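Quick illustration, no need to memorize.
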Amino acid sequence: MAPTGKSQDAVRSSVDEANEMSMFNAQLRFDLDLNGMVFSSMTTWQDSESEANTMDFDASRLVMSDVSDEEENEAISQEFQLLSDNDSDLSWILGTYYFASEGEYQLWFDSRDLVVTGFQTLASPRSYLDTTAWAAFGQATYNFSDAWALTLGGRYSYEEKEIEAESPDGLVKDDDDWSEFTPKAVLEYNWDAGMAYLSYSRGFKSGGFAYPYVENFSDNSVDAEILDMWELGVKADLLDNSVRLNGAVYFYDYEDLQVNRNAGLLPGVGVVIPVENAGGAELYGLEVDLTWAPTDALSLTAGFNAMDTEYTDYRATPSVYNTAAVPGPVVLSVPYDAKGDDMVRAPEFSAYLALANEFTFENGAYMPLNITYSHKGEYDFDLVPGDAANRIDEYESDAYQLLNARLAYVPAGDRWSIALWGRN
């Protein structure tokens, strides 16, 4: 029997070397008091590099579906803020933001032990991506009374991406840019035990390109994604602050939703991770979290999220098994009208329970106990055409539950501890 465990030499895998990644971060911040206002500057710089990180997707000692990547990225950002700092009923913030990055990446696909013509060992085109973004924003909150407050804000964002990819004909270039104004409004009502709120906001996710960039496959950029969000919620501390209740109902309306599809294979190219726009999608949901602390040592927490999702407009290209004889791609993309289908990776119901208790002893030692249980409903990893005879049922995930527990002993002084735990 093959060994099993968490150490690298006790796992069924064809990967026999450690993945390596290096990252360096630097941050600089300063604040200046301007007599009733505060000026803040925040600067960040990051440099990261990974070399041939390999993921063994078939989880065996055979090389059948191994994907490696090499990536380098350097990024810098600068943000300036001007904030009010007084006892007025009006508080506000103004600011600007700048971001720039340069990166390059490449993927390799290796299936030397899987005899499928055209897919033994492939390298995707090396791609180079430059991103430049800037934004200007402002927000103000006015307290009409001790109970009522109104917040209004907005942000204008601009982002540009330039990509180059190697090809047999030399470097292929493409670029695109996106911009959007995103407003926000929140009405709050406060009372002694908590608050209720009604909010609207618009979100903006810039467009981009499939990963990696492949000529004649992903040379059309992905449009920006727009999200309109409505939420009605309450946050309250009840029963002498022993119970905390948070609840909200929400509605999300997506325009040009960006859908990250499962990785696919192209003959002679290798792994590609397609990204495409759904024309529209809607999501309704209810989320509740409840914490009860009957004593200083014991607390119980429970929560759930229930939601209903659907694509309102989506001409998609899901993958199905190729039933034709080899040679040929392992899977095929087929046209499909996904209008009315559930959104991918969006379970209709999820919930959790948690218990935390601390047993104390007269000598100062204590034993913390933590137990957590979670449930996630069924969902699809990718689009699964319901009427396709060669559909990929492996893209469907059944509901599952996780149970974790940990009991520790900590002596007085907290100098060491010992724990018994189980996790799945």
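Confidence is low (pLDDT under 50) at residues 1-6.
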